[in-house]
Amino acid sequence: MIKVMGRVEIGVLLVVAVLFGTGVYFSFADHAFYREKYVVEDGFIEWLTVVGLLASMVVCGSRFVKLKGKRSLPFMMVTGLLTFFFLFGAGEEISWGQRLFDVESSEFFKANNAQSETNLHNMVVGGKKINKMIFGTGFALILLSYLFVVTPLYRKNEKARRFFENFGVPIPQNYHIAAYFILLVVVEGMMESPKRGELTEFVGSFIVFLNLLFPYNKEIYDAKVEGSLA
Q1: 3-state SS of the chain: helix, strand, coil percent to 5?
Q2: How far is Cα 201 from Cα 49, in angstroms, rounded to an integer?
């Protein structure tokens, strides 16, 4: 099934692509500017990342409300967990407003957080950052499984399709898959900046948003379409 992209999809992709390309360029041409201005803490790229995460939260949250009582328990659980996940991600991204409201970290976070901030993703355990272990390697493995295991199974196997639909899993369109792949190859394969993760988070947040709002299987989120209540 080939779906034609709408204006919102094209618009979001163009804006993100321009900002992504600009970031990649400056990471090589003027790394000081890239590090200290472009992806600086509380800079516009970080706040756009928060916008992307909150937009995804709104998509999932609105579906949870709209489909309550019309979909299966697994479907509602996954949708609810995704809503919480994106809220959590947005909160973590801005350290739960700590810098915004000038709140000092407790001694525990000062001693165990790589940036001495009140958040979990920068915590250090056994000399290693949780961000790299879980949100880096772990996320990459989940993403690869999602793109190259879950998606092909959904499209080619009827039993798999029913299974994933019962859990409310949004399946990516081809352009989503291409965008994820380009992001991983360019950032992780080409960029050398230790701050490249900020660009991954920004671009990734909007690809995920588009993946959620315009999935391959968008009809499963239509309240008018009868769904599984198993």
Answers
A1: 70, 5, 30
A2: 7
Does the pTM exceed 0.85?
yes
Give the pLDDT confidence of 46-102 residue by residue, as tens digits.
999 999 999 999 999 999 999 999 999 999 999 999 999 999 999 988 888 887 777
Residue 136 located in a structural domain = no
Q: At what angle do helices 196-213 and 73-93 cross, to 10 degrees?
A: 150
Whether residue 133 is contained in a domain is answered as no
196 occurs within a structural domain: yes
Bridge pairing between strands 128-129 and 124-125: antiparallel
Q: Is the pLDDT of residue 124 over 90?
A: no
Domain with 207 in it = 7-100+156-221
- The candidate with the shortest Cα–Cα distance to 21, out of 139, 173, 191, is 191
Which residue type does 61 have? G
How far apart CA 172 and CA 12 sit, in angstroms, is 16
pLDDT at 5: 78
